[in-house]
UniProtKB/TrEMBL annotation:
This is Bifunctional uridylyltransferase/uridylyl-removing enzyme. The keyword NAD does not apply. GO terms for molecular function: [protein-PII] uridylyltransferase activity; phosphoric diester hydrolase activity. Keywords: Hydrolase, Magnesium, Multifunctional enzyme, Nucleotidyltransferase, Repeat, Transferase. Uridylyltransferase (UTase) activity is inhibited by glutamine, while glutamine activates uridylyl-removing (UR) activity. Residues 1-346 are annotated as: Uridylyltransferase. Has four distinct domains: an N-terminal nucleotidyltransferase (NT) domain responsible for UTase activity, a central HD domain that encodes UR activity, and two C-terminal ACT domains that seem to have a role in glutamine sensing. Residues 812-832 are annotated as: Disordered. Its EC number is 2.7.7.59, 3.1.4.-. GO terms for biological process: regulation of nitrogen utilization. InterPro entries: ACT-like_dom_sf, ACT_dom, HD/PDEase_dom, HD_domain, NT_sf, PII_UdlTrfase/GS_AdlTrfase, UTase/UR.
């Protein structure tokens, strides 16, 4: 046991320093000399710190500080005893936990004995007298003996060793010798980072693949998992290379307290894990979680899991930002230095791409534009480009709250975000880690990082909701209201984390949220019913007899005979199951639910056929006067406008009108197309992608040019789409397009309902496809819901209605609408 050479006044153990525990003195470095009987005294002193009574038990941070002082005291005293002094040409340097001042109860000692070309026999004798007492005391030791040039070569040749030496800290001996190593390693790290950066990223990704994500593992690896302590060391290494801030993208005001708080929580949990296990351990076992949670005064294992998820996801986001920032900051060499600066490519109003990130345009004014948050996020989700941390911080500081009810533009941007497939997951994660998502949805706080209560769930509740949204985007064409499917997927478990049945509680929350979003009262009722009954189909199909009429009646009565709601719940049941975990959705469950839905539809009344919108009498009068007329008037929203086109009803008019709108980046939100006599009356509700809409006179002029063939819209729009979509996965749709034909009472006339994903110039190409197969558009109702379209076309068929003609129409339409990505190639058979 270590005892001070001179009497010390005992104090309570609130931090590093001298204190009396169980009758023994434990002394921090700097409080006088110490008398040794070997490293066994060190082990006994460590045991005292760990085995203190409950009233004098050190908290994790104080324990780590005390262990640092204890080991430094022993090493300093032992070094002086062996002649490792300021002018000896010997120096002892610590790396690892002791070097970082993060000494855990059973951490390895990582030590480097430096010497200045001293006689090898002398150095060996000193090393033996330093290492053997530690080995005899069964203290795990990682050691080396090197000159400074030798150590620098090791750091340059071995990436792992180089990262470790970045944390080197002088303990005892020749401080100048230590500084030569510490300064040399850091200098060479900065100058050589360009050639080592790719290897560093690859090594990190391989570690993540081996260890998984801390946030979503039942027994996470706190050190090596994604979001763990190794990732924080990676950020420190990038900061030493002067490529990024050590705390990128996050401040103290974000949920969970930011990166510094996340770091401390991870250290505290790992410290308690060592204390509970009685040995070094990185993986948190389920059987230890309750004890560790209680020791840290966090709660039970579920509370501990939630704390770890929050901390790990904060670290993960910070690492993503840090690595991205570092990659952009790498020094250029050779021909790369001559390349032009990256161009700022417009993505949306006030949103551009720059250096592979989504950033604010130079003229953006976040203080006056509350909808900018959602435009930035939807652009990120659609393009797959990450949002700049600087942009998110600026939005967090400057963007005002959205007024209630939300403007229609903001709701539409939210739907675009939710309809963007897996891109929405990363975008929402970034918003949530920076406090912006909770500003839009305060109810999210109850489910954020909330762990599942059963093992079948893979994700935390908030991540499960976003996984469901991503899967639902692939099912959007199966329902008539993809917007409500997306919102239902986002909110179906929002009632968890609160007292009571989560379906009932969630339904009440969904009503409030629907009002805030500005939904129609009927849509609010449907959204509320989706959340309230999201378990109705899977529970009924798997637990009751489907052949019993009472089973079908139970579902029909609960849904009040609403076929549209039944379809929404059917799609949500599949998305919810797929998002839960592997094996939850399979042929058996799909068959049971499908059979239940089919039986319910037989009992419910069918939906009426789409009907054309009535035409304003003033437009009728203008159409009867003849000529080409184009008007542009403000719509209901701030950025919405109504473009009305009146012109002779000739083949190709709809394609030309829609093409001119797409040419000027006017996105069609809805449209009503009809005719009076020999004139067509087409009204489009549009929103400009950027800036203000063009003058109506310019639209009329280009419409006339397109109709005469002087303007080749097809070529121009094809080039625009290629520039916007690019060669990546964005060129494919997430959902399989769906076409539904219905017969009308008029011979040779059919109604085609198309459900597909939106693209630039889609309406232009659809109209051209109809004209190419002899189908004249009598009237149409165009509706864009986020990233999806639900369009109804009444078609007069020149060759009459027949299965062959419908096949021709379907084939022509499939040629111009986004198609799902092809399946991945099958692996080659194993060749022995």
């Amino acid at each position: 046991m270590i005892k001070p050479a001179a009497p010390l006044r005992p104090v309570e153990p609130e931090g590093a320093g001298p204190w009396r525990m169980n009758g023994w003195w434990v002394v921090a470095a700097g409080n006088g000399g110490v008398q040794h009987n070997g490293a066994a005294d060190l082990v006994k002193a460590r045991a005292q710190l760990l085995d203190g009574a409950r009233t004098s038990r050190l908290d994790p941070e104080a324990l780590r500080a005390a262990l640092v002082d204890l080991f430094e005291l022993w090493l300093t005293s032992k070094g002086n005893e062996l002649g490792i002094t300021a002018d000896s040409g010997l120096s002892l340097v610590a790396v690892g936990g002791l070097g970082r001042r993060e000494m855990l109860p059973y951490s390895d000692l990582d030590l480097v004995l430096l010497h200045d070309d001293i006689d090898p026999a002398v150095v060996a004798e000193v090393a033996d007298q330093l290492w053997y007492p530690l080995w005899d005391a069964h203290i795990k030791l990682d050691h080396s003996v090197r000159t400074v040039p030798q150590a620098l070569r090791v750091a340059a040749d071995d990436l792992v060793a180089g990262l470790g030496m970045l944390e080197a800290r002088h303990i005892v001996g020749d401080v100048e010798l230590s500084n030569l190593l510490i300064g040399g390693v850091r200098r060479e790290w900065r100058t050589g980072i360009r050639t080592r950066f790719d290897d560093l990223v690859t090594q990190t990704q391989q570690r993540w693949q081996r260890s998984g994500q801390i946030a979503h593992r039942a027994e996470p690896d706190l050190k090596n998992g994604r979001g763990g302590l190794r990732d924080i060391q990676l950020l420190d290494a990038l900061a030493i290379a002067q490529l990024t801030d050590a705390m990128p993208g996050l401040g103290p005001d974000v949920p969970g307290g930011g990166l510094r708080q996340a770091h401390r929580r991870l250290l505290d949990v790992r410290t308690e894990l060592h204390r509970v296990a009685g040995r070094a351990r990185d993986q948190l076992r389920a059987q230890d979680a309750d004890e560790i949670g209680a020791a840290l005064r966090i709660g039970d294992r579920f509370d501990l899991a939630r704390t770890l998820s929050d901390s790990a996801r904060t670290v993960s986001y910070s690492v993503d930002v840090g690595v991205r920032t570092a990659a952009n900051a790498l020094p250029r060499r050779g021909l790369a230095r001559l390349r032009r600066m990256p161009v700022r490519r417009p993505l949306d109003e006030g949103v551009v791409e720059h250096s592979g990130e989504v950033v604010l345009a130079r003229d953006a004014r976040p203080q006056r534009d509350p909808g900018l948050i959602l435009r930035v996020a939807s652009a990120s989700a659609q393009t797959g480009l990450p949002m700049s941390a600087t942009t998110l911080n600026r939005l967090s500081e400057d963007a005002p709250e959205l007024r209630e009810p939300w403007p229609k533009d903001a709701l539409n941007d939210l739907l675009v975000l939710l309809g963007s497939g897996r891109g929405a997951i990363d975008a929402v994660e970034a918003l949530d880690r920076t406090g912006l998502w909770g500003r839009l949805f305060p109810e999210w706080g109850a489910v954020r990082d909330l762990p599942p209560r059963d093992a079948v769930h893979t994700w935390t509740v908030d991540r499960h909701l976003m996984e469901t949204v991503a899967y639902a985007s692939g099912l959007s064409t199966r329902v008539a209201r993809p917007d409500l499917l997306a919102l239902g997927a986002l909110l179906h478990d929002i009632g968890k984390g609160r007292a009571g049945d989560h379906s009932v509680v969630g339904a009440e929350l969904a009503t409030h949220i629907g009002r805030r979003l500005g939904l129609w009262p009927s849509d609010i009722r449907t959204l509320t019913a989706i959340v309230r009954h999201h378990l109705l189909l899977p529970d009924t199909a798997t637990r009751r007899d489907l052949a019993d009429p009472a089973t079908v009646a139970h579902v029909v009565d609960a849904l009040e005979g609403d076929v549209g709601l039944l379809e929404l719940l059917h799609a949500l049941a599949e998305a919810d199951s797929l998002a839960t975990g592997p094996g939850v959705w399979g042929d058996w469950k799909a068959s049971l639910i499908g059979d239940l839905v089919r039986r319910c539809k037989l009992v419910m009344a069918g939906d009426p056929l789409p009907q054309p919108e009535p035409i304003d009498p003033e437009l009728v009068e203008k159409a009867q006067a003849g000529g080409v007329h184009v008007t542009l008037t403000p719509g209901e929203g701030k950025h919405n406008f109504i473009v009305t086109v009146i012109a002779p009803d000739e083949p190709g008019l709809l394609a030309d009108a829609a093409g001119v709108l797409a040419l000027h980046s006017l996105r069609v939100l809805s449209a009503s197309l009809g005719s009076v006599g020999d004139s067509a009356i087409n009204s489009f509700v549009v929103t400009p992608k950027f800036g203000d809409p063009p003058d109506a006179g310019l639209l009329r002029e280009e419409l006339i040019r397109a109709s005469s063939g002087a303007l080749n819209l097809a070529n121009v729009l094809a080039k625009r789409e290629a520039e916007a979509v690019g060669p990546g996965p964005g060129q494919y749709a997430r959902a399989e397009p769906r076409m539904i034909f219905s017969t009308t009472s008029t011979p040779g006339q059919v109604i085609l309902e198309l459900r597909a994903e939106d693209r630039i110039g889609l309406l232009n190409r659809l109209a051209g496809a109809f004209a190419g197969v002899g189908a004249n558009v009598r009237w149409a109702k165009i509706v864009t819901m986020g990233a999806a379209v639900v369009d109804a076309f009444c078609l007069d068929l020149v060759d009459g209605d027949s299965p062959h003609q419908r096949e021709r129409i379907e084939s022509a339409v499939r040629e111009v609408i986004p198609r799902p990505a092809p399946p991945p190639p099958k692996p080659e058979p194993f060749d022995e």
